[in-house]
Amino acid sequence: MIEFENVRAGYGGGDVLQGVTLTVERAAITCVVGPNGAGKSTLLRVLSGLLRPSAGTILLDGKPVHALSPAEVLAAGVAQVPQQGGLFGNLTVRDNMLLGGYLIRSERGRLKKRLDELAEAFPVITTRAHDKAADLSGGQRRIVEFARALVTNPSVVLLDEPTLGLDPKTCEVVFESTQTMNELGVTVLMVEQNVRFGLKLAHHGVVMERGQVLFAAPADELLARPDMAALFFGAAPETSHPEGGL
Ligand SMILES: Nc1ncnc2c1ncn2[C@@H]1O[C@H](COP(=O)(O)OP(=O)(O)OP(=O)(O)O)[C@@H](O)[C@H]1O
């Protein structure tokens, strides 16, 4: 469980996060939505240690993480899937996966066991192991990026706009890979511009506006709220969503 308590943070020109209080349930998918500039990415940045809050606390399973460096946050079990383009194109899939295990490189047995577990959940790691990452399809690359983030066995994975710029087919891969990640027991905290996509995928939804949490509720309840439709859905292009109705 992640608990944000009255978190304030900014970039020097005043606070962007204006006292965020939020509980992120363990082993669930939570999606944060909200208008541009609401502070969604900033919320992920304070958790990953890239930005230090000016006030408030963040607890991960009861332990404070708000004063840790990014490397310490990663070691505490919070990993981020980078935006697409995060693989080394001229390295093989296998080598990209091994780079994901850099932190545990000295524990060979553990690393091998983990790679085997992930290959079961994401078979492309095995079937394309010796191909260069650049030779994979966009969807396959996304799968490897997701799997790579899991090599060190994080308890929490952060996704910042995972469908940005993707075609509908690759969005579907992101949808499935996020579910697979969650089925492995990972807590997923994601930010998504595509509100329907994010809330269909998530168990819990959070709406942010002007640096604060406006609502936090089960995702299907948020999807059904008429004021949500008025706030966001007019802007979402229907045709670019996987599964027809997203
Ligand atoms: N590195 C930065 N330096 C200065 N200001 C920043 C920086 N990053 C973000 N901001 C400002 O902080 C505010 C919130 O940005 P943030 O990226 O968290 O919003 P967001 O809700 O993720 O928006 P979007 O949906 O547009 O990505 C914005 O006003 C933005 O201009």
Description:
It is a single chain. This protein is α/β, with parallel strands linked by helices. It has two domains: 1-77 and 154-163 and 184-246, P-loop containing nucleotide triphosphate hydrolases (Rossmann fold), CATH 3.40.50; 85-152, no CATH class. The chain is built from ten helices and ten strands. The strands form two sheets. Strands 6-7-8-3-9-10 form a six-stranded mixed sheet, sandwiched between helices. Strands 2-1-4-5 form a four-stranded antiparallel sheet, covered by helices on one side. A hairpin with a 4-residue loop joins strand 1 and strand 2 (15-24). Helix 3 packs parallel to helix 6 (138-149) and helix 6 (138-149) packs parallel to helix 7 (168-183). It is globular. Mean pLDDT is 90; it is low at 235-246.
- From the 3D coordinates, which CATH architecture of the largest domain would you assign? 3-Layer(aba) Sandwich
Task: Look at the structure and give the mean pLDDT.
Answer: 90
Number of domains: 2
Distance between the termini: 28 Å
The ordered H/E elements are EEEHEEHEHHHHEHEHEEHH
The fold-level CATH name of the largest domain is Rossmann fold
Low-confidence stretches: 235-246
* Backbone structural class: alpha/beta
Under the CATH scheme, which class of the largest domain? Answer: Alpha Beta
Share of residues in strands: 15-25%
Family: Belongs to the ABC transporter superfamily.
GO molecular function, one term: branched-chain amino acid transmembrane transporter activity
Domain ABC transporter: 2-235
Pfam family, one: ABC_tran
